[in-house]
Design goal:
2 strands, 104 residues, two-stranded antiparallel sheet, mainly alpha
């Protein structure tokens, strides 16, 4: 389930996962962000080769990462210049921003 600027949520039979939207200083145009999310989400699942709770969680974060690039320009402008390395950096940043260890 897309949550717009707030990210996305995955609700499975026995799983629940929320990925925040990537924090941006400026949003130029949100048009196409959902399509960008969907493309990256499905592409990530394709690369994973299987649909598991773990691969879906990863796909949600990739979708959010690519959607965050989409809103940085008008139409597909930003995606036309996007490099895979940029996506990987943003994916890792999103993981770092949301990771914590329990105080057990």
């Amino acid at each position: 389930m897309k949550l717009g600027e707030f990210g996305a949520a995955y609700i499975g039979e026995d799983d629940y996962f929320v990925s925040p939207g990537y924090p941006l200083d400026e949003v130029v145009d949100p048009t196409g962000a959902g399509d960008a999310f969907a493309g990256a989400f499905l592409g990530s699942l394709d690369v994973a080769g299987e649909v598991t709770p773990s691969s879906i969680r990863r796909a949600v974060v990739y979708g959010s990462a690519v959607a965050s690039f989409q809103v940085e320009g008008f139409g597909p402008a930003r995606l036309l210049t996007l490099e895979r390395d940029e996506v990987e950096v943003r994916y890792r940043e999103m993981r770092r921003l949301t990771y914590f260890e329990a105080d057990d």
